[in-house]
Amino acid sequence: MMGDSEAIVQSPLAIRGLTVSYAHRPVVHSVDFVTPPGSMTAIVGPNGAGKSTLLKAVLGITRRLTGEVRVFGQPVEAMSRHVAYVPQRSSVDWDFPATVIDVVTMGLFRDLRWWQPTRHRHRQRALESLSRVGMEAFADRQIGQLSGGQQQRVFLARALIQQAALTILDEPFAGVDAATEKAIVEVLKQLKREGRTLLCVHHDLATVRDYFDHVLLLNVRRIADGPVEEAFTAANLQATYGGRLSPMQLVRLMEPVAQGESRGE
Ligand SMILES: Nc1ncnc2c1ncn2[C@@H]1O[C@H](COP(=O)(O)OP(=O)(O)OP(=O)(O)O)[C@@H](O)[C@H]1O
Known about the structure:
The chain contains 10 helices and 10 strands.
């Protein structure tokens, strides 16, 4: 049986007592959460539940009021090269003049020195990442000329090039078509098969059980977390979403996914 401290050292992400406040109002309150290695976790909760804020606080983009974030037992600040981040597409200025390959190569910035020109080897790595998301042909395109789904694939390629142990994604399926969603899910599942850990803010409750093996239900506080079959229950969803989910929606969400069937298709 693994002790608490051992579990934290082995865990790609361990959060303890995390609180974030805006204007003295806690929007994330006293959250404890540990990801098992190689897991794929959905963070779900209603609008304004603090999901994006939690991710940003983990990454140090937003200031933590209290709490501790550890990556494989070390403070996250010392482990940033092992953590890749796919931000919300809407949070980025896509008019900024940059090509697709520029954006993907940015994923290597911790390996580059300012005096080093981007080497042929780096371009090759960027092209490999782009080919994993079906975007190799767009390498020299301006990012402002891409569709929403293509932008999302480019962001994913930027995370892939990092070969990080932990990848954090904020709504990677928002505003993408079914084909892109399927392509992204396949890439994420492949990362999981490689033993990498994924943590993903996700809005579509109907696909949680098909795409993810773990879930964190959040509404300012941690309502529940664990393997999907244990934590993604009608009672926990009710506690997280309150009256926003009808009894019929809850019943549908509890129906098992048929073997070989993907709810996302
Ligand atoms: N920079 C900010 N300054 C002040 N308040 C903020 C800021 N960012 C977020 N908030 C507030 O914090 C709360 C949590 O926001 P957050 O974006 O983390 O929620 P979310 O669960 O990701 O929501 P959604 O599902 O709508 O994306 C909201 O009430 C939001 O208005």
